[in-house]
Specification:
The protein has 17 helices and ten strands. The chain is α/β, with parallel strands linked by helices. The relative contact order is 0.09. The strands form two sheets. A seven-stranded parallel beta sheet has the order 3-2-1-7-8-9-10, sandwiched between helices. Helix content is about 50%, strand content about 10%. Helix 8 packs parallel to helix 11. It has two domains: about 1-120, no CATH class; about 125-160 and about 250-440, Rossmann fold.
């Protein structure tokens, strides 16, 4: 019984504290609360004028006057009456607004989440920094999953050079841009990664033409057919998933990734066409480019880059996820012109057939050999080498050449359960701390 009473008291105190939090700065609530309060005050003033008129009218029934006198507590001092009626009024208005909000928002609230918590979190992220992330694959999705807890002002710019798997088949059959990386980013940015997001990621298996296709890829393809444009299909998909931010293709043109590779025991370099074929060649990539090499960037992507506070390239496959974006000349020019803090996030483990034996320095050097030196203000590298990697991977280490670069910042970024992947929370926290270090504390 004592425990029950204690729990009830705690619940009551928590409700009182929650009521106070509705008046906290930055929620955008106080202004409307005072508008409502002012309106009720004018209504009360009108009622008071009516009561005074009744008091002063000689024809008013004496019994009615007696009732009004008791109802208005005239037997108490005036100051005390003001406090009693004022306190009752404010309390009733606050409670009424609180219950009204809960009733209106109940269909949209997640179980176990208070309205004030959701609103406070939304406002905080709405004022967050403008961050543009560039890449593709699972690495970019991991980054977005962490950053969305800090800001809603997120833009993911994604490669459209993918030509393998479900995306490649849809690209070949329907002539649309590959939706796979965009689908991953939309799912990562979703505010509620539950059933709908799981459905978006679902991949069909078994015999038949659907084998290997992702539901999200088919969904985006269908929307592209209905809306008549790929970019509108991506935007509608974002609204369906209620994403925190935007996902944009780097270009709307049908581009292909081409690489010159040095294969084992072969003197001459071999030219390989197709993003999916490059890792399969088991050679060393010497140079990559896009065909056509003059594809214009998607204008909203350029605008996002020029307005950004921070631009993050990576993590992701060096040659097949990151460079296909940076090789879009307009986009690279916008990155160079932007006043944003430019950060490169190196991979934790090497990728077989693409970056075998690469250190963090090798990754950075390969990027800048293609796009120019000193593109990045900061290079972020993992320094936690604990755990088991896949047999065909090695740690991307911060060697002496890496540490000699003043731009490099090392931190523990590894996911404990999957050491070859970044931990989304660790990575996002590190990037936000770096941004605060360069631009000042974030509100």
């Amino acid at each position: 019984m004592d425990n029950l009473r204690k729990a009830e008291r705690e619940r009551l105190l928590q409700n009182i504290r929650d009521l106070g939090r509705w008046l906290a700065p930055g929620l955008g609530i106080k202004r409307w609360f005072f508008v409502v309060l002012a309106g009720i005050t004018f209504l009360g003033l009108g009622l008071a004028i009516l009561l005074l008129d009744l008091y002063r009218t000689e024809s008013t029934d004496p019994t009615l006057l007696t009732i009004l006198a008791y109802a208005s507590l005239r037997f108490l001092p005036r100051v005390l009456r003001v406090l009693i009626f004022g306190g009752l009024g404010v309390g009733m208005v606050a409670f009424g607004i609180y219950r009204l909000n809960r009733s209106l928002l109940r269909p949209f609230l997640r179980p176990g989440h208070a309205v004030v918590d959701e609103l406070e979190n939304y406002r905080r992220r709405e004022r967050g920094p403008r961050i543009v992330t560039i890449g593709g694959g699972h690495g970019l999705a991991t980054l977005l999953r962490g950053l969305k807890t800090y800001t809603r002002n997120l833009t993911a710019i994604v490669t459209v050079a993918d030509d393998g798997g479900s995306s490649g088949r849809l690209r070949e059959t329907y002539g649309i841009l590959p939706p796979g990386d965009i689908r991953n980013c939309l799912a990562a940015l979703s505010n509620d990664e539950q059933m709908l997001t799981q459905l978006f990621r679902y991949r069909f298996s078994g015999a038949g033409e659907l084998d290997g296709h992702s539901f999200g890829n088919l969904f985006i393809t269908a929307l592209a057919e209905i809306t008549g444009s790929f970019e509108e299909a991506v935007a509608e998909s974002g609204r369906v998933l209620s994403v925190s931010g935007r996902v944009l293709p780097s270009t709307l043109h049908d581009v292909k990734l081409v690489a010159d590779m040095q294969l084992p025991n072969v003197l001459n370099q071999v030219r390989v066409q197709g993003e999916s074929r490059i890792p399969q060649m088991a050679g060393r990539v010497r140079h990559v480019w896009l065909e056509p090499n003059d594809a214009p960037a998607f204008p909203p992507a350029l605008k996002a880059v020029l307005n950004a506070d921070m631009i993050v390239v990576g993590p992701g496959s060096l040659y097949t996820s990151l460079l296909p974006n940076l090789l879009v000349e307009d986009l690279l020019g916008a990155i160079k012109a932007s006043r944003a803090l430019k950060v490169y996030v190196s991979n934790i483990a090497t990728q077989s057939g693409e970056t075998d034996l690469y250190s963090c320095y090798d990754h950075t050097r390969a990027l800048e050999e293609h796009v120019g030196d000193n593109l990045f203000d900061v290079v972020v590298c993992n320094d936690n080498y604990e755990g088991e990697l896949n047999p065909d991977s090695q740690w991307v280490r911060a060697d002496e050449k890496t540490l000699a670069d003043s731009r490099v910042q090392c931190s523990d970024l590894s996911d404990a359960s999957h050491p070859w992947r970044h931990d989304s929370s660790k990575l996002a926290r590190t990037l936000i701390e770096i941004l605060a270090e360069y631009t000042g504390p974030l509100t």
